[in-house]
Amino acid sequence: MAQTPQQRRANERFAKNEAAKRGRGSTIKPKQVTKSPVSAGWVVVLAFVVCGGLLLELLRIVPELWTSIAAMLSRLTG
């Protein structure tokens, strides 16, 4: 199948663009490594303080909740 004049012009434009791309070198920018303003050690300390405090608070609250639930059940059944 022969090319139409419109297809021929489109192919010539495409070839011209591709040749222009090859003439220029590709400029790839290297990725910049971003450094965190807080060190990993401080993140670990902060997580320990927050999670440790949460764990201690749960250990304090759970027995109180258990005793109140047990008292409520004993009132309902007795």
TrEMBL record:
A GO term from the CC aspect: endoplasmic reticulum membrane
Similarity-based family: Belongs to the RAMP4 family.
Pfam families per the UniProt record, alphabetical: RAMP4 (PF06624)
Protein name: Stress-associated endoplasmic reticulum protein
Transmembrane portions of the chain: 40-59
Superkingdom classification of source: Eukaryota
Tagged with keyword ATP-binding: no
Comp. bias (Basic and acidic residues): 9-21
Keywords of the record: Endoplasmic reticulum, Membrane, Transmembrane, Transmembrane helix
Cellular localisation: Membrane; Endoplasmic reticulum membrane
The organism of origin for this protein: Penicillium argentinense
Function: Interacts with target proteins during translocation into the lumen of the endoplasmic reticulum. Protects unfolded target proteins against degradation and facilitate correct glycosylation.
Membrane topology: Single-pass membrane protein
Region ranges (Disordered): 1-32
